[in-house]
Amino acid sequence: MGSVMLHSGDCFMPFTCSGMELAIRYASLLRTRPERPRIVTRVGDNGQKEDRLVILRDEPSGGRPIGPSYTDRNEKLKFMQKHGIDVSIVSTLLRRLEASTANPWLDFLSADQAHDMALKLNQDLEDYCSSGPNVPDSPTPRLYGFGLLPLVPGIDTQAILEAVRQISALPHLKGVIIGTVGVGRGLDDEALAPIWAAIESAGLTVFLHPHYGVGNVWGEKDNGHVLPLALGFPFETTVATTRLILSGAFDRFPNLRVLLAHSGGSLPQLSSRLASCIAHDPIVASRLKHDARYYLGKMYFDAVAYGPEELGFVCDVINRSNRFEGDAQDVALGSRSIGSNRMLFGTEKWMSVVENLDAIDSVKGWAEEDRDGPSSDGYKLITLDIIQHDDISPSVNGLVGFCFRLHLHIEKQTESSDNSSLIYSCCY
Question: Domain Amidohydrolase-related spans what residues (predicted)?
Answer without folding.
Answer: 152-347
